Predict the structure.
Amino acid sequence: DTGVSQDPRHKITKRGQNVTFRCDPISEHNRLYWYRQTLGQGPEFLTYFQNEAQLEKSRLLSDRFSAERPKGSFSTLEIQRTEQGDSAMYLCASRLGTGLVWETQYFGPGTRLLVL
Amino acid sequence: AQSVTQLGSHVSVSEGALVLLRCNYSSSVPPYLFWYVQYPNQGLQLLLKYTTGATLVKGINGFEAEFKKSETSFHLTKPSAHMSDAAEYFCAVSENFGNEKLTFGTGTRLTIIP
């Protein structure tokens, strides 16, 4: 069990550019979550996957944001036409979802995005 | 809709003193409650959780929290603060057994005074 990993850890981009982040969950975890954390705030839910299916998206996830989990393993989060307001820490979490008992969400170290 | 309020964005305690971080929640159904800790430039680590059963929950690093339904509270305590406890602490609530998304409070930054 190597934990949840995220890549890159830091990203600096210019306004208007596209960026893509990757999350590798703990193996065998079928549920994967994306959260966004702005400075001085707690993480806010963006979206979640069960296997490859994206089952819920927050209203925070504008049409410039897209997330995929094509084979039910790693996930990508893409932001198109970045804006300065997109500057934040993007956190990924995974959990084993048996539906029988409560399982803990394990968080990755995050990708810190700065849009200039 | 569920929500979490953490009273006090900054708390300072002396090393060896009691740590008390406050959390109140709002939930339309029996909640699942969590405390996470975040060290600088790191992700969140689960300290403890309440799902069902005993209302006094013990976690890692000597922390514990008590679920009080009548007060809609889930305060975090530690009898004796250590320098290594300096971090940001987040209380979170979840209602749904279906997707288990977490709703976090705004966090409390804990500073330990030597």
Observations:
- DSSP finds no helices and twelve strands in chain B.
- The interface with chain A takes residues 4, 9, 32, 36, 41-46, 49, 51, 90, 92, 97, 99-107 of chain B (CB under 8 Å).
- The radius of gyration of chain B is 14 Å.
